[in-house]
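Example record

One chain of 117 residues, shown exactly as stored in the release files.
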Amino acid sequence: MSFGTWLFTRLHGALVGTDGFGNRYYIDRRTKGQKRERRWVMYKGAPEASKVPPEWHAWLHSNLAEPPVQGTKPKAWQKPHIPNLTGTGQAYLPPGHTLMGGHRSKATGDYEPWTPA
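Predicted structure tokens for this chain:
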């Protein structure tokens, strides 16, 4: 975070909550309760937008009036949020990717190339 963002947060921000990643969410005290509230996040570690869980994303974009409740149990069908892994060692590499050897299995017999008429 930059010094300006830190100073603005200290002067005008009111802490609303934190998420499981340690990110802190703020609202501008001057616009609280108005039609267009100013909301922002202070990331823990590197600023990476994909580290914002869906419920907090909805709050930041004013889709939710109230911030998410801490400790709510997720639904049985919900998976835990994971940030974008592109560029890391855990990124998905499909078969045939150059970093996976560049070889993929042969196409099965049901493949017919398109030829223009």
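Notes: The first strand starts at residue 13 and ends at 18.
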